[in-house]
Amino acid sequence: MCGIVGYIGHREAYPIIIKGLQRLEYRGYDSAGIALYDGTNIKLSKTKGKVSDLKEKIENEISTKGTLGIGHTRWATHGVPNDVNSHPHTSNSGDLVIIHNGIIENYDSLKQELIKRGYTFQSDTDTEVLINLIEDVKKNENLKLGKAVQVALNQVVGAYAIAVFDKNKPNEIVVAKLGSPLAIGVGDDEFFIASDASPFIEYTKNAIYLEDEEMAIIRRGKDIKVRKIQNDNLVDPYVQKLQLNLEQIEKGGYEHFMLKEIYEQPSAILDTFRGRLLSNEAIIKMVGVEDNMKKFLAADRIIIVACGTSWHAGLVAEYIFEDLARIPVEVEYASEFRYRNPVITEKDVVIAISQSGETADTLAAIKLAKSKGAFVFGVCNVVGSTIARETNAGAYTHAGPEIGVASTKAFTTQITVLTLIALRLARAKGTMSSSEFRQHLIELEMIPAKVEEALKSDAYVKTIADIYKDSKNFLYLGRGFNFPVALEGALKLKEISYIHAEGYPAAEMKHGPIALIDEQMPVVVIATKKGHYEKVVSNIQEIKSRKGRIIGIVTKGDTSVKELADYVIEVPETLECLTPLLTTIPLQLLSYHIAVMLNKNVDQPRNLAKSVTVE
Ligand code: G6P
Q1: Ligand 1 mean position, distance from CA 610 (Å)
Q2: C-beta of 309 in contact with ligand 1 (< 6 A)
Q3: Considering only CA atoms, which residue is closest to atom 8 of ligand 1?
Q4: What structural domains and CATH numbers belong to the chain?
Q5: pLDDT tens digits, one per residue of 345-402
């Protein structure tokens, strides 16, 4: 996820763009840049770091004059965050400039073609490939900018929201969208471009939200021309009257970042397997795994190290790796692992999971494992983070920035990446037949739509939250793949509502927690079909006979649990190993609504930090 801003009109562009980028920093903040057209030339300034670093740099470095400009705040996907990889990017001639939010999946093959034609590249980005492709098309076919953008985009596979201008035609900006958001603010002889309307809300309330596969040519003094990228058909743009305030826009209309991030999970999971899960070809492509396949296949065991929610994702992965790829897995709290003189050998593969990529204990565990000769693989969300750099190889989740302190979309995208790795290894080891493998790919591909469906229980979950919000304790139970989900559900509730909650393997209940059960105790039980369903139903009966209040998380259409439980929340059916991606959703919503009803600071709970860089 990145943020883009552009302006063409009668005002100075720089103040609008820099302020707009600050408002879009929730979309990414590892580097930023601006290109301004000053009437003669393009002035470019970019830097690794936050928009405030860019502001300081730009105001010392270049003249900020100009009424045309584009800017970008980055959340890296291709190439580490550094000055060179920051946007905007220019074409080889220096005439064309681009900003891009998204991922060009086939950038490597396009790049090889362009290199053969004499193009050179300074950055590692997919975006620099795109702007040179546009230049190549424009020159070879002698096209206007808009047409060149259109022809180039028809060769591209991936997702994008782009804005491009040509210094030789400084009265127009061309924009296009597929998969990433793009809003156009329509003013009086001026236009604004942005990932959402927050950068231009004080200038105009008129906005056009481009649909997927649409592009627009924006010219001063002219009407906006919107057309389909694929077939050239003109589209009549719908100009909306914005009624939102600034805060609402930054949070996409949601009350809190946490809720927004819960709702982003279908697209975050999709972004995470985009370009990796190719179900038609029945393959999984993961460069970090492919390049180190020998190490994975020779491993005696996999040790997973992580903290907090990432540790819970590691526990889910333990079940998945052992079940699908038949590789022994141990999951360790990084803080315990690093201090307990663990037995590690060169035949171990260590997987470190971290949303932020900065957690001090996880980093120390990695260093220890490396010093003993183990191969260390990272699963991080923040590109170019310390852990991403310290590990021998890795695979990013593509969740985009997670702002809410309580982790939500990072958890489900971590599980997605780890499932992809397990499946890839299972295939390489021959522990799955090709038809089983294909079935898993197809089911995994359906998960974003099923998460969407699970989110529809939101209003119902809210009514349950209202009933139990004043409880002093909660118990969460699950078995097998869903035992870690019970732990994660309890953690979410603790973190943001400050209600005491415990997660337990359902069968362990009778060895202790059952003593706590009375009519005051809500027990959230994950009881999806398959797996140990009958056994969980027996556990529910045990709770019921002690008058516990039962909230069941069940497979759609379930009847047995419904008869016993006080409330049931349904999730769609899927393969057992993929159920954590769905059962997690109502638990996130339950803790969110309880915390809101108790007037807690959901996005910044007391005493907690998003990234724990101290021991
Ligand atoms: C903190 C955060 C948690 C997170 C944990 C591990 O405690 O509040 O949400 O799960 O750190 O962070 P990491 O960035 O390594 O996943």
Answers
A1: 6
A2: yes
A3: 610
A4: 3-245 (3.60.20.10), 251-454 (3.40.50.10490), 456-602 (3.40.50.10490)
A5: 999 999 999 998 989 899 999 999 999 999 999 999 987 788 998 999 999 999 988 8
pLDDT, tens digit, for every residue of 545-575? Answer: 889 999 999 999 999 999 999 999 999 999 9
Task: Measure CA 461 to chain center.
Answer: 24
pTM: 0.80
For 422, phi and psi rounded to 5 degrees? -60, -40
Residue 613: the pLDDT is 65
Assigned token pair, 268: 């975050």
Span 212-231, pLDDT tens digits: 999 999 999 888 999 999 99
Residue 245 has pLDDT above 80, yes or no: no
Of the residues 493, 610, 614, which should be mutated to test ligand 1's pocket, given the most ligand atoms within 8 Å of the CB? Answer: 610
Binned at pLDDT 50, 70 and 90, residue 614 comes out as low
CA pair distance 375, 384, nearest whole angstrom: 19
Instruction: Report cis status (omega within 30 of 0) of the bond before 88.
Output: yes
Calculate helix-pair angle for 434-445, 447-455, nearest 10 degrees: 40
Q: End-to-end distance of the chain based on CA atoms, in angstroms?
A: 30
